[in-house]
């Protein structure tokens, strides 16, 4: 496995890309997986598809998500 590049350019580029994805609502699957493995070891990790579906459902709501309308 290749060692991740830790040069300042790549660190900044990855941080900017991550911020841009979060600003437009694209969930961060890699951060989710890292969190699950660190904080909840041994518990199952959702697939990317399940994770994305759950985040979209939470954001836009199948059953009353964050966006509400009067009509």
TrEMBL record:
The lineage of its organism: Bacteria, Pseudomonadati, Pseudomonadota, Alphaproteobacteria, Hyphomicrobiales. InterPro entries: Sel_put. It comes from the Bacteria. This is YbdD/YjiX family protein. It holds the Pfam family Sel_put.
């Amino acid at each position: 496995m290749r060692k991740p590049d830790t040069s300042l350019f790549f660190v900044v580029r990855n941080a900017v890309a991550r911020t841009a994805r979060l600003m437009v609502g694209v969930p961060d699957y890699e951060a989710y997986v890292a969190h699950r493995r660190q904080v909840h070891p041994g518990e199952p990790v959702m697939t990317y598809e399940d994770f994305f579906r759950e985040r979209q459902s939470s954001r836009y709501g199948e059953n009353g998500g964050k966006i509400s309308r009067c009509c």
